[in-house]
Write a structure and sequence with these properties.
heterodimer, A: 257 residues, mainly beta, 12-stranded mixed beta sheet, globular, B: 431 residues, 8 strands
Chain lengths: 257, 431
Amino acid sequence: MLPTNPMPLESLTAPVADPAEASGMARTSEQLRASGTPRPSTRRASRVARTVRTAAISAVAVLALAGCASGTEAAPGTDTSVAAEQSAAIATVTDPWVKATDGDMTAVFGVVTNTTGDELVVVSASAEIAGVVELHETVDDGSGSMLMQEVDAGFTIPAHGTLTLEPGGDHIMLMQLTGEIVAGDVIAVTLEFADGSTVQFEAPAKDYSGANENYGGDHGEHDGEHGDDDGEHGDHGDGDQHDEHGEHDGDSGSAAI
Amino acid sequence: MGSTRAQRPGSRWSRRQLLLGGAAAGLGAAAAIGADQFVRSGGLASALDSAAEAVGGAGGAGEGPDARGGGALHGPSTVPFSGEHQAGIDIVPQSFSSYIALDLRPETDRDAIGRMLRILTDDAARLTQGEAALADSEPELASVPARLTVTFGFGPELVRRAAGEQALPAWLGPLPAFSIDRLENRWNDGDLLLEVAADDPVTIAHASRMLLKDSRRFATLRWRQDGFRRAVGSERPGTTMRNLFGQVDGTVNAQPGTDDFAELVWIRDGWLAGGTSYVIRRIRMELDTWDELDRPGREASIGRRLDTGAPLTGVNEHDEPDFSATNAAGFPVIGAFAHVRRARSDNPRERFVRRTYNYEIAPSGGPDAFSDAGLIFGAFQADVSAQFVPIQRRLDELDLLNEWTTPVGSAVFAVPPGCAPGGFIGETLLG
């Protein structure tokens, strides 16, 4: 008599996962049988486990405010709180996470999926824990170094497409942090789209040794954000990272790595 | 297995499919003779062919995932993470297992323990399904799960910090001292156990590194014991393992999926309901002195034949030993000192379920030492004091095998129940 899972997995509320993941589900059930390891509801459990995020700190988009699910412009004066109850999420965020830090700034990563049939543009983001939030891209400066810079035009996500925020690539920068972000904390972040709609998600904090890009002298000391990486400052050996931090008055400019 | 891979025309299931299906195909003939001897005798090939016809009937050739005997890859196999019980317990043991014990840092309080367990649970839930963890810097290494399981165990200090002294089960703590023990602190105890097991050691390396990276701010590494059994594909699934003495090891052991297993293992009350206890002892084998012992002496020390694992009074591995049988001279066939006699008691409650792995590491005993090997002896039971200790005491008092084995490490952990998706291991303790 094998132990059974008393919790019907389908009843749990975590929303649909990244569609790109769904195709990977089917492979497990055959191999489970082949491995000779009988477990009740294995097939169902393994399938659902792949579509449902399996721990408390995994988060997906919670809701979208404003009635722009169809992609049409919201009428001026639209009551967004009413629209929120009616509209479906225009975008979902899967596998979000934020790099833990005891410094002044850090980055948020994850996969944003546009669930609508129209292009979406993320124009800004906000988080209570950050005084300033910017959208950043990482580009090759032509000499082999990676350069981080603000994306003024925002992130464009094609219809039914995805935007991947990852170390070394596009990401959301949280700056002027009001407190330490410790591994295991959960940080609420809001994405703002061109049409005024927003999507909120929660990003668990994890220790991570990478994503050590230097962000500029004017936004706080450089040392703090590396406090958690065991002194590994490999990305900063060049010595040319503290250039181009001249003008920061109300303008984040660009930060060289 | 030297037999050919040819499939008999007309059989629905290829031989290899049946090999992978193992017990499900009901290879009773192989089980009766026992262990790997059946393979060597060539009996396996013909038995599988017969079974193929019996199971599949005369269906057309070419059905099933492997019509030509090439075999589906094993790497994609997964074991579900979520459930009433943690994974990695009620399971046919994987080929490799790494036992990792961590000590909590002084500043890791109840809140930090909760954060740590949420992170580690999320890592384990993803990695065991063949998905990269969050912030996984080598996501490609996560793509071959190979039946990965991660099983968490709590030492007394973790339980104490999480929920106070009153949450400790009576048995949670070091075992009583035994005269045979030569325990070394470096292999003892621990606040948090992670057992990372899989059929592929690269999978284990990646998963354990991910878990350790995420543990680092909360805990330090206390010890790590890496064990191995036969690789997948080497033997028929379900074959009792052999230890490095060459003995068939684990014949009498409640099988995964049985009522007996559940009855012996699962705790029913309190925050550990759905969990169990885990005793992990590192047993060094004195192979150099074992070399001095001839075959009859070896068989006498355990009370079983070396070739089949059958008791000295029997023919097949799973024959019941006859402890009252005597030889012509009137002496018991299975000696009073034999391990198989000493390892059981008249009280049926004094039983546990074993999960054991061989180990071998670089020796440290000077230039003449060239071997440090033995057994990572794991035991699951609902109550350590009632089920495990009495047996260990019997063995401590008398067991000829003690001449060639030395316990050098001992640890006891409380294994919490499983969790549902969205939960975390330890939630029943932390509330």
